[in-house]
Sequence to fold (448 residues):
Amino acid sequence: MRVAFQISGILRNWETAYVLFSQYKKLIEKKGIEVDFFIHTWDDEYARLCIEEGLFDIFTDYDLTPLPRQGIEDKTRDRSKSLYSWSYSMFLSSVIRRSYQYNKKVDYIKVFSCRPDIYVPYHYWSYVGDKMALESSYMLNYPPYRKSATNNDKWPHLVSDDLKIVGTQEAIDLFSLNFHLMYLNNDPSFIPTYHTVPGLTIMRYGLNYESKSGLAEKWKILRRNDGKYVMTGHNSDDVMIEQEYLRDGMMQKHIERFGL
Amino acid sequence: MKENLVVTVGGKSLPPYFNDLLKDYDLREDTVYKSFVLSEDYNTLLDGYKALNELSLGKAKIESQERKLYNKVLFIHKDYVEVEVQSSFYDFIKQDISLQPNTLYTPLYTKVREVSKLITIPSTKIWMCDSLTFNIISSIPRTWLERDMLEFYLDQDNEYAHIYQALQDKQFQFFNFLGSMNIRIETI
Fold:
Protein backbone atom coordinates (compact mmCIF):
# COMPACT_ATOMS: atom_id res chain seq x y z
CA MET A 1 0.00 0.00 0.00
CA ARG A 2 1.30 3.40 -0.94
CA VAL A 3 0.13 6.98 -0.31
CA ALA A 4 1.35 10.38 -1.45
CA PHE A 5 1.46 13.87 -0.05
CA GLN A 6 0.89 16.44 -2.75
CA ILE A 7 1.90 19.73 -1.17
CA SER A 8 1.43 23.09 -2.83
CA GLY A 9 1.48 26.81 -2.16
CA ILE A 10 3.74 29.36 -0.57
CA LEU A 11 6.38 28.00 1.79
CA ARG A 12 5.98 29.29 5.35
CA ASN A 13 7.39 28.16 8.69
CA TRP A 14 9.12 25.31 6.95
CA GLU A 15 11.83 24.76 9.59
CA THR A 16 9.12 23.59 12.00
CA ALA A 17 6.88 22.05 9.34
CA TYR A 18 9.83 20.05 7.98
CA VAL A 19 10.29 18.31 11.32
CA LEU A 20 6.57 17.64 11.54
CA PHE A 21 6.45 16.17 8.05
CA SER A 22 9.41 13.97 8.93
CA GLN A 23 7.37 12.71 11.88
CA TYR A 24 4.32 12.11 9.68
CA LYS A 25 6.52 10.06 7.34
CA LYS A 26 7.81 7.89 10.20
CA LEU A 27 4.31 7.33 11.58
CA ILE A 28 2.92 6.28 8.20
CA GLU A 29 5.84 3.98 7.43
CA LYS A 30 5.47 2.37 10.84
CA LYS A 31 2.10 1.08 9.62
CA GLY A 32 3.78 -0.65 6.69
CA ILE A 33 2.57 2.00 4.24
CA GLU A 34 5.00 3.54 1.75
CA VAL A 35 4.74 7.30 1.36
CA ASP A 36 6.05 9.79 -1.19
CA PHE A 37 6.13 13.55 -0.72
CA PHE A 38 5.90 16.04 -3.57
CA ILE A 39 5.80 19.81 -3.44
CA HIS A 40 5.27 22.71 -5.76
CA THR A 41 5.99 26.07 -4.24
CA TRP A 42 6.75 29.58 -5.41
CA ASP A 43 10.30 30.51 -6.26
CA ASP A 44 11.29 32.96 -3.53
CA GLU A 45 14.25 33.61 -1.29
CA TYR A 46 12.87 31.58 1.61
CA ALA A 47 12.21 28.49 -0.51
CA ARG A 48 15.71 28.61 -1.98
CA LEU A 49 17.18 28.99 1.51
CA CYS A 50 15.28 25.94 2.73
CA ILE A 51 16.63 23.92 -0.19
CA GLU A 52 20.19 25.05 0.64
CA GLU A 53 19.68 23.98 4.25
CA GLY A 54 18.68 20.49 3.13
CA LEU A 55 15.06 20.87 4.21
CA PHE A 56 13.74 19.51 0.91
CA ASP A 57 15.37 16.11 1.34
CA ILE A 58 12.02 14.67 2.39
CA PHE A 59 10.60 15.20 -1.10
CA THR A 60 10.64 12.57 -3.80
CA ASP A 61 10.41 15.40 -6.31
CA TYR A 62 9.76 19.14 -6.19
CA ASP A 63 9.51 22.20 -8.39
CA LEU A 64 9.63 25.94 -7.90
CA THR A 65 8.09 28.46 -10.28
CA PRO A 66 7.58 32.23 -10.04
CA LEU A 67 4.34 33.40 -8.42
CA PRO A 68 1.88 34.28 -11.21
CA ARG A 69 1.22 37.98 -10.85
CA GLN A 70 -2.11 37.80 -12.66
CA GLY A 71 -3.49 35.94 -9.69
CA ILE A 72 -2.74 38.73 -7.24
CA GLU A 73 -5.86 40.77 -6.66
CA ASP A 74 -5.27 42.15 -3.19
CA LYS A 75 -2.18 44.23 -3.96
CA THR A 76 -1.78 45.60 -0.43
CA ARG A 77 -1.37 42.11 1.03
CA ASP A 78 0.20 40.56 -2.08
CA ARG A 79 -2.30 37.76 -2.14
CA SER A 80 -4.98 36.28 -4.30
CA LYS A 81 -8.51 36.55 -3.03
CA SER A 82 -9.72 34.34 -5.80
CA LEU A 83 -7.57 31.35 -4.76
CA TYR A 84 -5.92 31.64 -8.18
CA SER A 85 -2.40 30.88 -6.95
CA TRP A 86 -3.72 28.20 -4.54
CA SER A 87 -5.38 26.49 -7.46
CA TYR A 88 -2.48 26.90 -9.89
CA SER A 89 0.08 25.58 -7.43
CA MET A 90 -2.11 22.57 -6.63
CA PHE A 91 -2.25 21.74 -10.33
CA LEU A 92 1.52 22.06 -10.69
CA SER A 93 2.05 19.85 -7.65
CA SER A 94 -0.22 17.22 -9.17
CA VAL A 95 1.84 17.42 -12.39
CA ILE A 96 4.96 16.56 -10.39
CA ARG A 97 3.24 13.64 -8.67
CA ARG A 98 1.55 12.26 -11.75
CA SER A 99 4.70 12.55 -13.88
CA TYR A 100 6.56 10.58 -11.23
CA GLN A 101 3.81 7.96 -11.24
CA TYR A 102 3.91 7.54 -15.02
CA ASN A 103 7.69 7.18 -14.99
CA LYS A 104 7.83 4.78 -12.07
CA LYS A 105 4.52 2.98 -12.74
CA VAL A 106 3.21 3.41 -9.20
CA ASP A 107 -0.32 3.95 -7.91
CA TYR A 108 -1.48 5.49 -4.66
CA ILE A 109 -4.34 4.26 -2.54
CA LYS A 110 -4.73 7.75 -1.08
CA VAL A 111 -3.40 11.19 -1.89
CA PHE A 112 -3.19 13.95 0.74
CA SER A 113 -3.24 17.38 -0.86
CA CYS A 114 -2.39 20.26 1.45
CA ARG A 115 -0.41 23.45 2.00
CA PRO A 116 3.13 23.29 3.45
CA ASP A 117 2.43 25.13 6.71
CA ILE A 118 0.11 22.51 8.10
CA TYR A 119 -0.28 20.74 11.40
CA VAL A 120 -1.82 17.27 11.52
CA PRO A 121 -3.21 16.39 14.98
CA TYR A 122 -1.43 13.27 16.25
CA HIS A 123 -4.59 11.18 16.63
CA TYR A 124 -5.29 11.61 12.90
CA TRP A 125 -2.74 8.92 12.07
CA SER A 126 -4.93 6.31 13.73
CA TYR A 127 -7.28 6.74 10.74
CA VAL A 128 -4.52 5.98 8.22
CA GLY A 129 -4.37 2.25 7.58
CA ASP A 130 -5.60 -0.76 5.67
CA LYS A 131 -9.24 0.33 5.67
CA MET A 132 -8.39 3.11 3.22
CA ALA A 133 -8.19 0.49 0.47
CA LEU A 134 -11.88 -0.29 0.91
CA GLU A 135 -13.14 3.13 -0.10
CA SER A 136 -14.98 3.58 -3.34
CA SER A 137 -13.55 5.35 -6.36
CA TYR A 138 -13.68 9.11 -6.85
CA MET A 139 -14.04 9.52 -3.10
CA LEU A 140 -12.86 12.54 -1.18
CA ASN A 141 -12.66 12.58 2.61
CA TYR A 142 -13.74 16.13 3.12
CA PRO A 143 -15.38 18.26 5.82
CA PRO A 144 -19.00 19.17 5.03
CA TYR A 145 -19.55 22.35 3.11
CA ARG A 146 -22.63 24.50 3.10
CA LYS A 147 -24.49 26.40 0.46
CA SER A 148 -24.90 30.05 1.22
CA ALA A 149 -26.09 32.96 -0.83
CA THR A 150 -26.90 35.37 1.93
CA ASN A 151 -24.02 35.84 4.36
CA ASN A 152 -21.78 38.89 4.56
CA ASP A 153 -19.33 37.82 1.91
CA LYS A 154 -19.66 39.35 -1.50
CA TRP A 155 -19.56 36.05 -3.41
CA PRO A 156 -20.78 33.29 -1.13
CA HIS A 157 -21.96 30.43 -3.37
CA LEU A 158 -20.53 27.81 -1.09
CA VAL A 159 -18.44 27.72 2.04
CA SER A 160 -15.92 24.88 1.86
CA ASP A 161 -12.59 24.06 3.47
CA ASP A 162 -9.49 24.83 1.42
CA LEU A 163 -6.88 23.68 3.95
CA LYS A 164 -6.44 20.09 2.86
CA ILE A 165 -8.17 17.61 0.60
CA VAL A 166 -7.74 13.87 1.02
CA GLY A 167 -8.95 11.41 -1.56
CA THR A 168 -8.40 8.44 -3.80
CA GLN A 169 -5.86 8.93 -6.56
CA GLU A 170 -8.34 9.51 -9.39
CA ALA A 171 -10.40 11.86 -7.21
CA ILE A 172 -7.36 14.01 -6.42
CA ASP A 173 -6.20 13.83 -10.06
CA LEU A 174 -9.51 15.33 -11.10
CA PHE A 175 -9.84 17.70 -8.15
CA SER A 176 -6.36 19.08 -8.91
CA LEU A 177 -7.66 20.22 -12.30
CA ASN A 178 -9.79 22.82 -10.52
CA PHE A 179 -7.51 25.47 -12.04
CA HIS A 180 -8.88 24.56 -15.46
CA LEU A 181 -12.43 24.35 -14.20
CA MET A 182 -12.33 27.64 -12.30
CA TYR A 183 -9.81 29.95 -13.96
CA LEU A 184 -9.36 28.81 -17.57
CA ASN A 185 -13.06 28.18 -18.03
CA ASN A 186 -15.04 31.09 -19.46
CA ASP A 187 -18.33 29.90 -18.01
CA PRO A 188 -19.95 33.18 -16.86
CA SER A 189 -22.33 31.55 -14.41
CA PHE A 190 -20.12 31.43 -11.31
CA ILE A 191 -17.13 33.15 -9.75
CA PRO A 192 -14.33 31.37 -7.89
CA THR A 193 -13.42 32.99 -4.59
CA TYR A 194 -11.83 31.92 -1.30
CA HIS A 195 -13.94 29.10 0.04
CA THR A 196 -16.15 28.43 -2.97
CA VAL A 197 -13.54 26.72 -5.16
CA PRO A 198 -13.33 23.30 -3.45
CA GLY A 199 -17.09 22.86 -3.18
CA LEU A 200 -17.74 23.99 -6.75
CA THR A 201 -15.03 21.64 -7.99
CA ILE A 202 -16.55 18.68 -6.17
CA MET A 203 -19.98 19.40 -7.63
CA ARG A 204 -18.96 20.29 -11.18
CA TYR A 205 -16.54 17.39 -11.62
CA GLY A 206 -19.06 14.96 -10.15
CA LEU A 207 -16.82 13.77 -7.32
CA ASN A 208 -18.03 11.85 -4.27
CA TYR A 209 -17.23 13.02 -0.80
CA GLU A 210 -17.84 11.79 2.71
CA SER A 211 -17.47 13.72 5.95
CA LYS A 212 -18.02 11.11 8.63
CA SER A 213 -14.69 9.33 8.67
CA GLY A 214 -11.67 10.45 10.64
CA LEU A 215 -9.81 11.07 7.39
CA ALA A 216 -12.17 13.96 6.71
CA GLU A 217 -11.25 15.73 9.95
CA LYS A 218 -9.83 19.20 9.59
CA TRP A 219 -6.14 19.90 10.13
CA LYS A 220 -4.67 23.11 11.51
CA ILE A 221 -2.60 25.86 9.98
CA LEU A 222 0.92 26.10 11.38
CA ARG A 223 1.16 29.84 11.86
CA ARG A 224 4.17 29.78 14.21
CA ASN A 225 7.73 28.69 13.50
CA ASP A 226 9.01 28.25 17.03
CA GLY A 227 8.72 24.47 17.25
CA LYS A 228 6.33 24.84 20.20
CA TYR A 229 2.99 26.30 19.15
CA VAL A 230 0.61 25.69 16.28
CA MET A 231 -1.38 28.95 16.52
CA THR A 232 -3.95 28.36 13.82
CA GLY A 233 -4.85 32.00 13.43
CA HIS A 234 -7.80 32.00 15.76
CA ASN A 235 -6.89 32.94 19.33
CA SER A 236 -9.04 30.22 20.82
CA ASP A 237 -7.23 27.59 18.79
CA ASP A 238 -3.77 28.40 20.08
CA VAL A 239 -2.42 24.93 20.88
CA MET A 240 0.97 23.43 21.58
CA ILE A 241 2.64 20.93 19.28
CA GLU A 242 1.81 17.54 20.76
CA GLN A 243 4.48 15.76 22.78
CA GLU A 244 4.34 12.70 20.52
CA TYR A 245 5.95 14.77 17.78
CA LEU A 246 8.75 15.98 20.06
CA ARG A 247 9.91 12.73 21.64
CA ASP A 248 12.87 11.98 19.41
CA GLY A 249 14.44 15.39 20.02
CA MET A 250 14.54 16.29 16.32
CA MET A 251 12.44 19.40 16.88
CA GLN A 252 14.74 20.59 19.67
CA LYS A 253 17.77 20.14 17.42
CA HIS A 254 16.12 22.27 14.76
CA ILE A 255 15.16 24.94 17.25
CA GLU A 256 18.81 25.20 18.25
CA ARG A 257 20.12 24.96 14.70
CA PHE A 258 17.89 27.67 13.31
CA GLY A 259 17.57 29.76 16.46
CA LEU A 260 13.79 29.58 16.30
CA MET B 1 -1.97 26.45 -29.39
CA LYS B 2 -4.81 25.71 -31.78
CA GLU B 3 -8.48 25.92 -30.87
CA ASN B 4 -9.03 22.17 -30.65
CA LEU B 5 -7.18 19.01 -29.76
CA VAL B 6 -7.20 15.50 -31.14
CA VAL B 7 -6.00 12.76 -28.83
CA THR B 8 -5.06 9.54 -30.54
CA VAL B 9 -4.03 6.12 -29.32
CA GLY B 10 -3.17 2.97 -31.24
CA GLY B 11 -0.44 2.01 -33.68
CA LYS B 12 -1.88 2.82 -37.10
CA SER B 13 -1.65 6.13 -38.92
CA LEU B 14 -4.58 8.43 -39.39
CA PRO B 15 -5.91 8.29 -42.97
CA PRO B 16 -4.76 11.25 -45.12
CA TYR B 17 -8.27 12.75 -45.30
CA PHE B 18 -7.97 13.59 -41.61
CA ASN B 19 -5.24 16.14 -42.44
CA ASP B 20 -7.79 18.54 -43.83
CA LEU B 21 -10.38 17.73 -41.21
CA LEU B 22 -8.02 18.37 -38.33
CA LYS B 23 -6.18 21.47 -39.46
CA ASP B 24 -7.62 23.41 -36.50
CA TYR B 25 -6.51 20.70 -34.08
CA ASP B 26 -3.36 20.16 -32.06
CA LEU B 27 -2.32 16.54 -31.87
CA ARG B 28 -1.38 14.46 -28.83
CA GLU B 29 -0.48 10.87 -29.50
CA ASP B 30 0.08 7.91 -27.28
CA THR B 31 3.85 7.76 -27.29
CA VAL B 32 4.09 4.66 -25.13
CA TYR B 33 2.33 2.50 -27.68
CA LYS B 34 5.46 0.61 -28.67
CA SER B 35 6.20 -0.52 -25.15
CA PHE B 36 2.68 -1.88 -24.89
CA VAL B 37 3.02 -3.77 -28.16
CA LEU B 38 5.99 -5.67 -26.81
CA SER B 39 4.02 -7.10 -23.91
CA GLU B 40 2.38 -10.44 -24.50
CA ASP B 41 -1.02 -9.53 -23.14
CA TYR B 42 -1.26 -6.37 -25.18
CA ASN B 43 -4.77 -5.37 -26.12
CA THR B 44 -4.88 -2.42 -28.45
CA LEU B 45 -8.18 -1.03 -27.23
CA LEU B 46 -7.63 -1.55 -23.54
CA ASP B 47 -4.07 -0.26 -23.48
CA GLY B 48 -5.08 2.69 -25.60
CA TYR B 49 -7.43 3.70 -22.82
CA LYS B 50 -4.75 3.15 -20.22
CA ALA B 51 -2.72 5.84 -21.97
CA LEU B 52 -5.57 8.37 -21.70
CA ASN B 53 -4.70 9.56 -18.23
CA GLU B 54 -1.16 10.49 -19.18
CA LEU B 55 -2.27 12.13 -22.42
CA SER B 56 -4.75 14.15 -20.42
CA LEU B 57 -1.98 15.51 -18.22
CA GLY B 58 -0.14 16.70 -21.33
CA LYS B 59 -3.29 18.48 -22.45
CA ALA B 60 -3.73 20.13 -19.05
CA LYS B 61 -0.12 21.36 -19.03
CA ILE B 62 -0.49 23.06 -22.41
CA GLU B 63 -3.76 24.67 -21.33
CA SER B 64 -2.23 26.02 -18.12
CA GLN B 65 0.77 27.42 -19.99
CA GLU B 66 -1.43 29.09 -22.59
CA ARG B 67 -4.07 30.11 -20.03
CA LYS B 68 -6.94 28.82 -22.14
CA LEU B 69 -8.87 25.63 -22.66
CA TYR B 70 -9.22 23.71 -25.87
CA ASN B 71 -12.65 24.22 -27.35
CA LYS B 72 -13.18 20.64 -28.56
CA VAL B 73 -11.27 17.47 -27.78
CA LEU B 74 -11.60 14.61 -30.24
CA PHE B 75 -10.59 11.08 -29.25
CA ILE B 76 -9.67 8.63 -31.99
CA HIS B 77 -8.42 5.10 -31.62
CA LYS B 78 -6.29 4.84 -34.76
CA ASP B 79 -6.50 1.08 -34.93
CA TYR B 80 -10.20 1.43 -35.71
CA VAL B 81 -10.36 4.45 -38.02
CA GLU B 82 -11.27 2.29 -40.98
CA VAL B 83 -14.65 1.92 -39.33
CA GLU B 84 -16.98 4.02 -41.43
CA VAL B 85 -18.30 7.13 -39.76
CA GLN B 86 -21.17 9.16 -41.16
CA SER B 87 -20.20 12.36 -42.99
CA SER B 88 -22.23 14.38 -40.51
CA PHE B 89 -19.58 13.68 -37.90
CA TYR B 90 -16.81 14.99 -40.15
CA ASP B 91 -18.85 18.17 -40.56
CA PHE B 92 -19.22 18.27 -36.82
CA ILE B 93 -15.45 17.98 -36.37
CA LYS B 94 -14.86 20.93 -38.69
CA GLN B 95 -17.57 23.22 -37.36
CA ASP B 96 -16.60 26.12 -35.15
CA ILE B 97 -19.02 25.42 -32.33
CA SER B 98 -18.92 25.20 -28.57
CA LEU B 99 -19.92 21.85 -27.15
CA GLN B 100 -22.30 21.38 -24.26
CA PRO B 101 -20.60 20.72 -20.93
CA ASN B 102 -20.71 17.21 -19.48
CA THR B 103 -21.64 15.72 -22.86
CA LEU B 104 -19.97 13.10 -25.03
CA TYR B 105 -20.70 13.26 -28.76
CA THR B 106 -20.30 10.11 -30.80
CA PRO B 107 -20.99 9.04 -34.39
CA LEU B 108 -20.91 5.32 -33.50
CA TYR B 109 -23.33 3.85 -31.06
CA THR B 110 -25.71 1.04 -30.33
CA LYS B 111 -29.32 1.63 -29.36
CA VAL B 112 -30.42 -0.92 -26.80
CA ARG B 113 -33.67 -1.37 -24.94
CA GLU B 114 -32.87 -2.11 -21.32
CA VAL B 115 -34.96 -1.66 -18.18
CA SER B 116 -37.92 -0.37 -20.20
CA LYS B 117 -35.85 2.36 -21.77
CA LEU B 118 -34.03 2.90 -25.04
CA ILE B 119 -30.44 3.75 -24.17
CA THR B 120 -27.47 4.81 -26.28
CA ILE B 121 -24.25 2.85 -25.87
CA PRO B 122 -21.48 5.05 -27.29
CA SER B 123 -18.51 3.94 -29.33
CA THR B 124 -15.22 3.72 -27.51
CA LYS B 125 -13.29 4.29 -30.77
CA ILE B 126 -14.22 7.84 -31.70
CA TRP B 127 -15.93 10.51 -29.69
CA MET B 128 -15.71 14.18 -28.87
CA CYS B 129 -16.32 16.39 -25.86
CA ASP B 130 -15.25 19.70 -24.35
CA SER B 131 -12.00 20.04 -22.45
CA LEU B 132 -13.45 19.75 -18.94
CA THR B 133 -15.48 16.69 -19.83
CA PHE B 134 -12.33 15.14 -21.24
CA ASN B 135 -10.68 15.73 -17.86
CA ILE B 136 -13.41 13.64 -16.29
CA ILE B 137 -13.41 10.81 -18.83
CA SER B 138 -9.63 10.51 -18.91
CA SER B 139 -9.51 10.19 -15.12
CA ILE B 140 -11.09 6.73 -15.33
CA PRO B 141 -9.07 4.51 -13.00
CA ARG B 142 -6.91 1.98 -14.80
CA THR B 143 -8.22 -0.67 -12.44
CA TRP B 144 -11.69 -0.11 -13.90
CA LEU B 145 -10.54 -0.91 -17.39
CA GLU B 146 -11.26 -4.46 -18.36
CA ARG B 147 -10.53 -6.12 -21.63
CA ASP B 148 -14.17 -6.71 -22.43
CA MET B 149 -15.71 -3.46 -21.33
CA LEU B 150 -14.52 -1.51 -24.34
CA GLU B 151 -15.20 -3.99 -27.11
CA PHE B 152 -17.43 -3.33 -30.03
CA TYR B 153 -20.14 -0.82 -29.43
CA LEU B 154 -21.36 -0.25 -32.95
CA ASP B 155 -24.58 0.37 -34.73
CA GLN B 156 -26.66 -2.76 -34.88
CA ASP B 157 -27.12 -2.35 -38.61
CA ASN B 158 -23.48 -2.85 -39.46
CA GLU B 159 -21.32 -5.92 -39.73
CA TYR B 160 -20.46 -6.01 -36.04
CA ALA B 161 -24.09 -6.16 -34.98
CA HIS B 162 -23.86 -9.81 -34.01
CA ILE B 163 -21.23 -9.02 -31.45
CA TYR B 164 -23.76 -7.09 -29.44
CA GLN B 165 -25.64 -10.31 -28.90
CA ALA B 166 -22.71 -11.62 -26.93
CA LEU B 167 -22.36 -8.59 -24.68
CA GLN B 168 -22.05 -9.36 -21.04
CA ASP B 169 -23.19 -7.08 -18.28
CA LYS B 170 -19.73 -5.72 -17.67
CA GLN B 171 -19.50 -4.62 -21.27
CA PHE B 172 -21.77 -1.73 -20.40
CA GLN B 173 -19.16 -0.37 -18.04
CA PHE B 174 -18.04 2.56 -20.21
CA PHE B 175 -21.66 3.60 -20.57
CA ASN B 176 -22.14 3.15 -16.84
CA PHE B 177 -19.00 5.14 -16.12
CA LEU B 178 -20.28 8.07 -18.17
CA GLY B 179 -23.61 7.90 -16.37
CA SER B 180 -22.02 7.81 -12.94
CA MET B 181 -19.97 10.90 -13.80
CA ASN B 182 -23.10 12.72 -15.00
CA ILE B 183 -21.99 12.81 -18.65
CA ARG B 184 -24.74 12.84 -21.26
CA ILE B 185 -24.42 10.97 -24.55
CA GLU B 186 -25.30 12.74 -27.80
CA THR B 187 -25.25 11.02 -31.16
CA ILE B 188 -24.14 12.74 -34.35
Q: What stands out?
A: The helical segments of chain B are 17-21, 33-38, 44-50, 52-66, 87-94, 131-137, 161-165, 173-180. Residues 4-187 of chain B form a domain with the Spore Coat Polysaccharide Biosynthesis Protein SpsA; Chain A fold (CATH 3.90.550). Chain B touches chain A through 24 residues (CB under 8 Å). Chain B has one domain: 4-187.
